[in-house]
Write a structure and sequence with these properties.
The structure holds two protein chains of two kinds. By secondary structure, chain A is of the alpha+beta class. Chain A is 39% helix and 28% strand. Chain A has a four-stranded antiparallel sheet with strand order 2-3-1-4, with helices on one face. Chain A is elongated, with a radius of gyration of 21 Å. Chain B contains six helices and no strands. Chain B starts with a helix and ends with a helix. In chain B, 5% of the residues are buried. Classes of the chains: A alpha+beta, B mainly alpha. Chains A and B meet through helix 3 of A and helix 2 of B.
Amino acid sequence: MSRLATVALGVVGLAVGVVAVLALREATLSTHQHNDPDSTVGLVVEARTEGGETGQTLAEMVEALLLTCRLEVASDLVGPIRDEGDGRFRAELRPALDPTDRRQLRGCVEDWTIDHLRVDVVGFAPP
Amino acid sequence: MKVVAWLAGIGTLVAALAYMVVSLNRWEWNRALFFGLIVLIAEVGLATGLVLRRLDRMEARRADPEVLAAIRETRGDGPDRFAWLKETSTERLSVFITFLVGGGVLVSALAWVVDRVAGRTSTPLAEQRLAGQLEAIRYPPGGLVVDDVTVLAQDVPGADDAQLRKLLRRAGRT
């Protein structure tokens, strides 16, 4: 292969690499925005448990999970977590979450954080 | 079969790697750790398989086919470990029967000796211990308190109750 072709291929490869890194940064780099300290956001989750310890209710496990995961973001729980039945729970967080915070919180809540508990985030709703 | 194993290993590695990257993207750390562990296990398994395959090829190359064939042709039958059981000669008895019967006699003799010794030493001690344990349930030295009805019952004509007489003798009322 001629020297010119080699150099051309090298330049193309470099350009592809740079574009790939920039795209990856765009998709994964967390960027936080300032939120009004008094703003709130509602979090709705669906939870289910199987084979858990006796004496531990689903509500307790969900509360433990949300109290742990709220440490991933800069928000705190406001008021008690409401049990809406059928394994659905609603919690309120203050201040509201930016998109990065929402992704982080969703990831923590849906992760395998607590044994025998599976939680899916239904969505973020107005309080 | 080997192809299936290789495909399974590579598939596991690729799938676990994909899930790991997806979990990292979603900020699901525990899942990412778990899938990362699967990637590591699959990687070590595949690497070991590759190394062993290379070693097999090297050994196969070294072996001269003619020599290998000659060795295989002259391979004798394996030793028959139980040939002595199949002997039909009547000039000597099978050692199996001897050991079996003789061993049984020895074990029986030993058991008899142990039984005799145990009987002479443990039985008197056990009797003494039992007598001590029965102390708690025996009649009191003065006997039971017997009511007048029971006492008078022995004087009824035709009444012959050995147990009653025993009871009364112990109570000192005859």
